[in-house]
Specification:
Elements: H1 2-6, E1 12-17, H2 21-26, E2 34-38, H3 48-61, E3 68-72, H4 81-92, E4 98-101, H5 107-124, E5 132-137, H6 140-144, H7 146-150, E6 156-161, H8 163-170, H9 190-202, E7 206-209, H10 218-231, E8 235-238, H11 241-250, H12 255-274, E9 280-282, E10 285-287, H13 289-304
Parallel strand pairs: 1-2, 1-8, 2-3, 3-4, 4-5, 5-6, 6-7, 7-8
Antiparallel strand pairs: 9-10
Helix pairs in contact: 3-4, 4-5, 10-11, 12-13
Bound molecules: glyoxylic acid and magnesium ion.
Magnesium ion binds near residues 41, 138, 162, 164 and 165.
């Protein structure tokens, strides 16, 4: 299933607290591309152990659609990581696609998880390599090491920015991470977004932005989605059903751009295959091989979002 989920869309990635049976069963009705059942920061320390079996039951007993299904375990600097992985992965069955590792600081954190997963898969009778990995970059160390982290394991499917922990790690003078800082002339995370995006793409990973914590501020969320969607990110976390709707829309190409991408491909194919030309005019602009690559990305994203070419 790691192969299955690798290419699936992750426009909206819904965070579901693993200690809440109510939220675990509600997650099914929320049309997110991905749901991750959380054992980390949305679960109180006193509930950590019990949450594991709730998460396992939710994965096994609920009939999930074809969305990406992930469990976020606790970070390596806690006492819970190996227990989370062993208990959840060995009991969840084949429907679990991925494990998300928070606060990844160095490539070795991912390698350690990869090795542990291999043993758990062997003992649980799962195909080796079945479980994919999502790595969260949310500390200064993690950002400095992001290129090595993205290359650390063939299990890696996505790299995820965690703005709240990152703001804390940077000691930014803010009390809410991942929202606009009006005093700052620009986007205080622009460098971070670009660095993570480049590292992820260089290794063929999907790249995801983390939560927008002001859950009632739809305008602010839309603004933040546009920033990362415009840079090239694949999606963003959702903490509430209303956020899913906004995120799905902004991370999908419009029908107009989807149709234009098709027309560019047609024109380029005619030019190269029938006329033997590498570059050709398309309306008032010149298109060439780079235009084909850009158009293909629109088609892939649009198709994943359910668009069809207008007749
Ligand atoms: C997410 O985990 C974050 O810290 O923003
Ligand atoms: Mg975090």
């Amino acid at each position: 299933m790691s192969q299955r989920s690798r290419a699936l869309p992750r426009r909206s990635c819904l965070s579901v607290p693993g200690s809440s049976e109510r939220f675990l069963s509600k997650a099914l009705s929320i049309p997110a591309d991905m749901s991750f059942l959380d054992l980390e920061d949305s679960v109180a320390p006193s509930e950590k152990i019990e949450a594991r079996s709730k998460v396992v039951s939710a994965i096994r007993d609920q009939s999930w659609d074809d969305r990406v299904l992930c469990v976020r375990v606790n970070a390596w600097d806690t006492a819970w990581t190996y227990g989370d992985v062993v208990e959840v992965v060995s009991q969840a069955g084949e429907r679990l696609d991925e494990v998300m590792l928070p606060k990844v600081q160095r490539a070795a954190d991912v390698i350690a998880l990869d090795l542990l997963l291999t043993q758990v898969e062997k003992n649980a009778g799962l195909p080796v390599g079945h479980i994919g990995i999502e790595a969260q970059i949310e500390t200064t160390q993690g950002l400095i090491q992001v290129e090595e982290i993205c290359a650390a394991s063939p299990r890696l499917e996505t790299i995820v920015f965690g703005p709240a922990d990152f703001a804390a790690s940077m000691e930014m003078p803010v009390l809410t991470g991942g929202v606009q800082i009006s005093e700052y002339p620009g986007d205080h995370f622009h460098y971070v977004f670009s660095k993570i995006l480049m590292a992820g793409r260089a290794h063929g990973l999907q790249v995801i932005d983390g939560p927008y914590l002001k859950v009632r501020d739809g305008e602010g969320l839309a603004d933040y989605c546009r920033r990362t969607a415009t840079l090239g990110f694949d999606g963003k976390w959702a903490l509430h059903p209303d956020q899913v709707t906004i995120i799905n829309e902004i991370y999908s190409p419009t029908q107009e751009l989807f149709d234009r991408a098709w027309s560019i491909l047609d024109a380029y194919e005619r030019a190269t295959e029938s006329d033997g030309r590498g570059a050709v005019m398309f309306g008032d602009e010149m298109i060439d091989e780079a235009s084909r690559k850009m158009a293909l990305k629109f088609l892939a994203r649009g198709t994943r979002a359910g668009l069809r070419r207008s007749s």
